[in-house]
Specification:
Elements (H helix, E strand, L loop, with lengths): L4 H10 L3 E7 L4 H16 L3 E7 L4 H6 L7 E6 L2 E7 L3 H15 L12 H9 L19 E5 L2 E4 L2 E4 L1
Parallel strand pairs: 1-2
Antiparallel strand pairs: 1-3, 3-4, 5-6, 6-7
Helix pairs in contact: 2-4
Length: about 160
């Protein structure tokens, strides 16, 4: 975790490919979700540099770059800030990384072995407090959300207890 203004500036100035600065706080659950997703992306692309930054310890930099909530990710291509994503928006984070990787042109995906099904399920279920695996597709939905009452959810007429 980066906790000094100088270290953040040094990362930006020495960056030659794609850099993601993930501004985070230890108490924030959404930050942990974004960190897990960025970890997966960093394993996918060898030239992607991802660093967590302690927002509270780099207050001048945070103020200068209008970082007023966590998680916030700053995306750099070479030394240029290309995009900022604030909040828990994992699809937009992934899309931005893919776009910058394509723009960079000299980063290719890392060949990785196929993940064991049990390992994948364990990793997915640990990414959030509540995970739902729902059968169907956006075109043909088998399941519909009806209502919720505390920790009980009614999905497609069936009860899911959490």
């Amino acid at each position: 975790m980066i906790s000094s203004e100088g270290a953040v500036q040094q990362l930006i100035e020495s960056n030659e490919q794609v850099l993601v600065l993930h501004f985070t706080a230890s108490w924030s659950e959404p930050c942990k979700t974004v960190a897990a997703s960025l970890g997966v992306l960093a394993q996918k692309y060898k030239g992607l540099s991802v660093h967590q930054v302690d927002t509270e310890k780099v207050s001048k930099f945070s103020e200068t770059h209008n970082i007023d909530s966590v998680p916030t990710c700053l995306f750099y291509l070479k030394k240029e800030l290309k995009e900022t994503v604030a909040g828990l928006n994992v699809p937009r984070v992934a899309k931005t990384v893919d776009k910058l990787i394509t723009e960079c042109g000299n980063i290719s995906p890392v060949e990785s072995p196929v993940e064991d099904l049990n390992s994948r399920l364990k990793r997915l279920t640990q990414m959030a407090k509540c995970v739902a695996f729902i059968k169907g597709s956006p075109q043909a939905r088998d399941v519909s959300y009806e209502s919720s009452d505390g920790n009980v959810f009614y999905i497609g007429g069936r009860v899911l207890l959490l």
